[in-house]
């Protein structure tokens, strides 16, 4: 049974279950919100950035990817933002998704082209994944990614899964002890879907959100479809959480047209939830 938790937002992304609340980013408004089980919504921090993705460090502090500053910013308890890592040497474009693994390493990806100008030509895609180590070092650990979107790390810290929207697949890498990525492979071919935000569950499956087909799909490694949740608007990202970890949260919105892209009310961004067959596992996590 689908339940609407909140609506009336802009383009929503980056849902995260953390400390008993669902956190999510309203990109067009430039605000990160948190909603508790009673439905109370708090605007946690405002930061104008497109994209505006975030995750949580091991100490619980939120860290967000800032396009304008081309950096990762850490949110302090007093609600101030300070620079956590400088990403300016990686790309002139703002970063997209971010995931912090169980060891405190931060992976951040970048589509690495001007989205409004359309996809670049050439066989080799410009997207990449960068690693921000716990010691502050920043380096690219994977390239040739066709619009890297959602990312997730398995519970054993051994595998990073990346949604490649333009290649219509989930791509996996083995994670080495130093955070490097090797053994690139197709984790799941998702047909004509363009996977956006993703999450993993305790049965080894992945959920991915698809904007065009207005759905979230649960797939096994190899691509077998296990479950599907249909929505009335584009699904941008999903997360598992709740009291037992087995609630699927989806952030969804309606495409308002390019001329109203920055009008956050035109998107009618909505947060919905529905029971899931298995609790969440890995990172992003609870």
From TrEMBL:
Active site: 196
Annotated Pfam families: SGL
Highest taxon of the lineage: Bacteria
Keywords assigned by UniProt, alphabetized: Hydrolase, Metal-binding, Zinc
Cofactor(s) recorded in Swiss-Prot or TrEMBL: Zn(2+)
Keyword DNA damage part of the UniProt annotation: no
Entry binding sites for substrate: 96, 114
Co-factor remark: Binds 1 divalent metal cation per subunit.
Hydrolase found in the keyword field: yes
Domain SMP-30/Gluconolactonase/LRE-like region: 13-253
Binding site for a divalent metal cation: 13, 149, 196
Any GO MF annotation of the entry: metal ion binding
Family: Belongs to the SMP-30/CGR1 family.
Descriptive protein name: Sugar lactone lactonase YvrE
Origin organism lineage: Bacteria, Bacillati, Actinomycetota, Actinomycetes, Mycobacteriales
